[in-house]
Design a protein that fits this description.
Elements: E1 7-10, H1 33-44, E2 52-53, H2 61-64, H3 70-78, H4 84-92, H5 103-122, E3 128-131, H6 153-165, E4 170-174, H7 181-187, E5 193-200, E6 227-232, H8 239-257, E7 261-266, H9 283-293, E8 301-305, H10 311-325, H11 341-354, H12 374-387, H13 393-396, H14 402-419, E9 426-431, E10 445-446, H15 453-463, H16 471-488, E11 492-498, H17 502-516, E12 521-526, E13 540-546, E14 559-563, H18 574-588, E15 592-597, H19 605-614, E16 623-627, H20 632-643, H21 658-671
Parallel strand pairs: 1-2, 1-3, 3-8, 4-5, 4-7, 5-6, 7-8, 9-10, 9-11, 11-16, 12-13, 12-15, 13-14, 15-16
The protein binds N-{4-[(3-aminopropyl)amino]butyl}acetamide and zinc ion (ZN).
The site of N-{4-[(3-aminopropyl)amino]butyl}acetamide has 15 residues, from loops.
Amino acid sequence: PAMASGTALIYDDEMTSYKLLWDDPECDIEVPERLLSSYEQLKHYHLVERCIHVPVREGTEEEIMLVHSSEYLEVVKSTQTMNEEELRRVSENYDAVYFHPNTYRCAKLAVGATLQLVDSVMSGKVCNGMALVRPPGHHSQRNAANGFCVFNNVAIAAQYAKRRYGLQRILIVDWDVHHGQGIQYVFEEDPSVLYYSWHRYEHQQFWPLLRESDYDAVGQGKGKGFNLNVPWNKVGMGNSDYLAAFFHVLLPVAFEFVPELILVSSGYDSGIGDPEGQMTATPECFAHLTHFLMQLANGRVCAVLEGGYHLKSLSESVCMTVKTLLRDPLPQISGEMAPCLSAVESIQNVRAAHKPYWKCLMYEEATPLHNLSTKSQQMMEAELIQTSTHPTAKQVVGTTNSDEAIKTDRFLESHMKKILFPVPPVKTASAIVSKVDAHLLPISVQVEMEMNAQELKTLVSAFDAELVKEEKALLSLQNVLAVLDKILKKKVCNGIAESSVASVSTTFALKHCFDFGLQRVLCIVVGDMDLELDLDDGKILLMNICQKQQTEKTNSKYHISLNWKEDAGRNNFFCAVLGFILPVAYSYQPDLMIIVIGPNRSLGVNAISLLTCLLQGLAESRILVVIQDTEIKLVQSVAKALSGVSTPDFGAYAPAFQENFLEIKRLRDQLQQEWKMLRCSVKDWI
Ligand code: Q9C
Ligand code: ZN
């Protein structure tokens, strides 16, 4: 379905009006500059003016009491008029909390800002948005402030959305580096709120030091299966670890859950340079995480600031989030795409713990690693150090000192210059000549061939002398090349072209890409089609999703064929896209993608559109879709996916055919050495 457009940004200076008044090394990182520098950076990138400004308001007492007790509310209220001595004493009643006379006012604004965001999205005024708030919320509990948090903004928002809009399924994604135990406690028994959190855990040695932050806390009573904890047992987790957790844990479950609204506990202390988190994820990682969430809940994503204490890292990551909410093309994610052993171990454990509750995990082997002995861990770690370039604990320890913080500043300064590329003025180009009128497509440009007929003939005859004689084939080629050319020259971001000779057109297009200087092109062919390609040099990765068994072919690194049974109307394609295609694609890191839709396709219109949506995180969103037999529905749906005006809608979740599932599992086992993002279990590790 079509969705609302526009991104709300909620921010008010007043939330910078409280600060720590005394010496407390535990709390001195939570400063007003966190908001100021984030907002400044948003202005710097001209993102503020592209958002819809929504004013803040105070949350009411009734709203606060959706989560907190009246006794606790009274305690917080009473701090307004206290002197420093009294404030210190109240603060001491809680773990890692400080109060200031303005704290109460700001905490009410933080709640109100979050609810304003939910209202803006739920009323259809905007599609998504972000609220920059202080104090943060996810640690606070019914009767307690905790970890800089006073009122639980996101938990209150979820209760509010259920009440006011009658929502039945809300997903909370907590990517802050700390466990939002406050949110877990509120919704532990509630199946209508799915809570996902990853957090620095280190086998319970990291704050808040709770047993219930581990992967086996799956929820209670009716809420069993609706609490997903991914504990990180090492510092240094980065882009590939976070993406692996999304591919193999959050996304399959979330697509099965079918949320109506997504709230993000959007903490950036999980980013590089943060003194608390000691992780290594770079700002563009948050663009990718945001992008994936935007494919759910019809795009209704509300991001609400939680932690984040390295000012530069925080503000760049906030910008990446907002830029993505605004639907700009995504920057390529940096670094080697291979999750580390410890991350994969955590992922395997959560998957095993949740096997009983989610159909997408039903074929999972029930082998949680439980308590890997310290000794075997050290052995595995020694192997890891030998075989992986992933930063090890040793390399990132010590980032708390200011030298390291400044190093991160400098790193980010140059890093962001590399990844912030100019956005093409037009998103989607199309060359559709028959059956579908251009006006039936969403906002796009109909391309005109800039090359004259003679030029084209010369080009084509150099490639295939026979082809020049066929008028229809020539027209097809012209379509495909015209769109591709616009993409390569960055005049548009992506495009769709009709071609009666898709196979020839694709071969020709690939050649054109390499003449242009591209290094890696991911080519996904849906349906039966033979492409004569040289696949040895790694410049093309060909994935063929076809119905017919290709017995004579065995899969190799750069040629993967996925036998996929007809799944008319069923949505078991999720496990293939999330568990296989995306991990391989992210491992490959293409600079362009070509999706070719041929005859006898075993994927429905929705599946193809979903694939198109999800792949936009790669290659700076550069995608060319070539469609052989033009079907109006398919063309429209893919064009919508490319231009981002809607996300495909699937009905209730059905489990994968066992056969299809086993095919994915087989391929994963076979190819995980080559394409490391496929890893979701530690067996066969080395
Ligand atoms: N020695 C948020 O990020 N640190 N809160 C306690 C104990 C408290 C983090 C250290 C960190 C609180 C919203
Ligand atoms: Zn945090």
